[in-house]
Amino acid sequence: MLYHFLYPLAKSLGFFNVFGYITVRSVIAFVLSFVICVIFFPFFIKKLTNFKLNQIIREEGPESHRIKVGTPTMGGFLVIIGMVASLLICGNFKNLYILIILFATISFAIIGFIDDFLKISKKSSDGLHAKFKLFSQIFLAAAISTAIYFIMGDKFSYVTVPFFKNLKIYLSFFYIPFGVFWIVGFSNAVNLTDGLDGLAGGLLVPVVLTLGLFCYVTGHKEFAQYLYLDYLPLSAELLVYCFAFVGGLCGFLWFNSHPAQIFMGDTGSLSFGGIIGATALMIKQELLLIILGGVFVAETLSVIIQVFSYKTRKKRVFLMAPLHHHFELKGWKESKVIARFWILGGIFA
Questions:
Q1: Which residues contact 259 (CB under 8 A, 6 or more apart)?
Q2: Closest among 264, 296, 260 to 277, alpha carbons compared
Q3: pTM reported for the whole predicted model
């Protein structure tokens, strides 16, 4: 709205030229998204509680989590509403990357919403059938990766290696299945990490801020060339989206911090993980996301190692997986696990 309706007025009144600046619109998007969440979350929590839309706690989880029974879930839904509303006001919808990231956000959120709804209605920690959920994620990620591939063109079908100026791994058409693996992988990585109050949300903030910085830099020719990054004219507009995302996360953390008044739910975690995976693909910083999301990667690896070890040796490597539960069972208080994982997340970013 600001860009499409107010910016053109700059021809008559110079003040409106400010709405052409991505940085200005990004700050407005952050504030709007944060304010929307802070204002509406109390009402949202009350309604979810009245309708008994509460998080189902896994029976095999730590005993200390039993006190969380009755806490409402699907908080990610309102975060997405705040993000999309802010983007409608501040975004440039002529930018194809914005349309792709909006599709990624909404489509993965729908999968998560259905999963949450089934868990609540069945009063079980089992929602969507695992195979159906994975197939849905793969299908959507394939659509997103294909769109990115054809917008960028075959000359960008490579993976950049962090810290090397010109080291690139060319994949040609296989960039699409790589993109599918990346988006689905990080979607599930954030989902696995979302097990403690504020953990996933707090870890996402530095990841999204860093991705936003790269979006802005790669979208400016002089900055990109100076830093030996690919110049991608479409990417700068994603800074507006990233700031709207961070604003929504901060508003959510206001109520999700320990002890949580509401949980993110799969509506949020599956969508948010898909977003960071898709964003990394669009700005050609795919492998960098392994470092940025180091805690998400460690959480996922802990589950893979645990399952593999138990199936092959009938022995567990960790007291419980994902990794945050391991440290809980070692005697760390939940708040300490969260704070230390946040510190690690910030260091990785």
A1: 197
A2: 296
A3: 0.93
